Amino acid sequence: MLPVVGLLLVLARDPWSLGAAAVLFFLCSYAGVVFVAFLVYSVVYSRTDFQGRPAALVVLGSRVIDGRVPPLLASRLDRALELYRAQGATGPAPLLIPTGGKGDDETRSEGAAMAEYLVAHGADPGDVRPEVQARNTRENLVLSAAVQAEAGRAGPALAVTNNYHVLRTAVLARELGSDTQVVGAPTARYYVPSAFLREFVAVVVEHKRLHLLLVLPFVALTVVGITAVSLGA
């Protein structure tokens, strides 16, 4: 709809309509450039190998359905189990921390359902410490770090999530001052477009002040220019 709105504004041919069309074009272009940068960096980061040997694998939760792990969440857990077995084959197995609380539309906590899945698929129950209070990604990271400390498993952590969620998780980890690295799990192709768009919106909202500072000068200059033209006419 935005190109249609822009065309209608241009056809109006008055200074304020032309100015609004210019602002609209700039905002759309800015959003497009930022989204492409976000998409490229997300793909590159999700394919970067993690460094070192993690002491803990933090599996970020997502919605469980009827108390069971759906395919989207299962992909994260399967990736964590893959890493868990690989690390355990060459040394001490890392601690598994499935993290996620109980949402209003859930019958049990995500962490509990995930822990059950991990044990059922071969993880040693002694290596599984669920976190069942977190309500968002930031709390996933903070509360799982506390679980790791309580378990006495000092060392770097590796967070496991779906590939579309890797970048935002990594950004949050850095903001928290954590040395947690992030690795991605496969996502069904049909879900990827909407998932990346949702993540993009979330990142923009979390850094809304920065984006406002970047676009306001152009909008202000446009308003000043239109005012000058109107007064001159």
Tell me what the structure shows.
- The chain is of the alpha/beta class.
- The chain has two domains: 48-187, HUPs (Rossmann fold, 3-Layer(aba) Sandwich); 189-226, no CATH class.
- The protein is 58% helix and 9% strand.
- It contains eight helices and four strands.
- It has a four-stranded parallel β-sheet.
- Helix 2 runs antiparallel to helix 8.
What's the structural blueprint in terms of helices and strands?
Elements: H1 2-12, H2 15-46, E1 56-60, H3 71-88, E2 95-99, H4 110-120, H5 137-150, E3 157-162, H6 166-175, E4 181-185, H7 192-206, H8 208-232
Parallel strand pairs: 1-2, 1-3, 3-4
Helix pairs in contact: 1-2, 2-8
